[in-house]
Amino acid sequence: CGDGILQQPNGLSQFEQCDDGNANDGDGCDHKCRNEVCGNEKSAEELEVGPNKGIKNAVVSVENIYGVPVSPKIVVLDQQRCRFNPHVLLVPQGGTVKILNPDGVLHNFHAYSSANPAVNKAQPKFRKEMEVKFDAPEIFRIGCDAHIWMSGWIVVGGHPFFTVTDDQGSFRME
Fold first, then answer.
1. pLDDT tens per residue, range 113-167
2. Which residues contact 43 (CB under 8 A, 6 or more apart)?
3. What's CA 36's distance to the chain center, in Å?
C-alpha cells in the first residue's frame, strides 16, 4: 500500500480499494488503501467569510413582491463526500429538489420544514436519486441523521427575485 500500484487479491496480499501513492489520510484514499467516502475533517459552513470580508452563502431577496409568477423547476442537491452541495439551495415555489447520493453510503435527507410537509427519508447507497417537491415559501434547515455534521439550508422563494452570495460575498440578481 502506498506504492501507487493497485494490488489485487492473490492469497498473499490484502485487497486494496485504492492506492494513490502516499500514506496520507483525508485525500480520498487512506493509509491502509481504503476509499475514504466522507474524509476525516469537515470545516464549519455556518459562517464563511472570504478574504475581502464578504460573506458566502448569504441569501439576498427583494421584499414585498407580490403577483410575480414563479416558474417551478428541478434543482439539484448533491451529497458528495458527506456534504450538502450547495450549502444553501434556492428553490422556486412549487419546485422539485433532486437529491443525489454518489457516495455509496447511507444518507438521510431530513428537512426541518414547517410550511411544507416535513421530510425524513433514508437514501441508501443503491438509491442514487430521489425527489421532493416544495410548494410553500419558507427557509428551513436540512440535515443527514446518518452523518450529524451534514447540514445545510433550503430557501423556497415565492417570487423569482432571490439569490445567494458567492465565495467573495458578491451576488447577481437577474
1. 999 999 999 999 889 999 999 999 999 999 999 888 899 999 999 999 999 999 8
2. none
3. 17
Residue that is written with C-alpha cell 458527506 in the block: 82
Assigned C-alpha cell, 113: 420544514
Three-state DSSP class for residue 157? strand
Q: Among 58, 60, 65, 75, which residue's Cα sits nearest to residue 158?
A: 65
Can you give the three-state secondary structure of 78-136, one letter per residue?
Answer: ECHHHCCECCEEEEECCEEEEEECCCCCCEEEEECCCCCCCEEEEECCCCCEEEEEECC
The answer for residues whose C-beta is within 8 angstroms of residue 84's C-beta and 6 or more apart is: 77, 78, 142, 144, 150, 151, 152
What are the grid coordinates assigned to 134, written together?
416544495
Our CA dihedral for 69, 61, 115, 72, rounded to 10 degrees, sits at 30
Residues 81, 38 contacting (CB under 8 angstroms): yes
Q: What is the pTM of this model?
A: 0.78
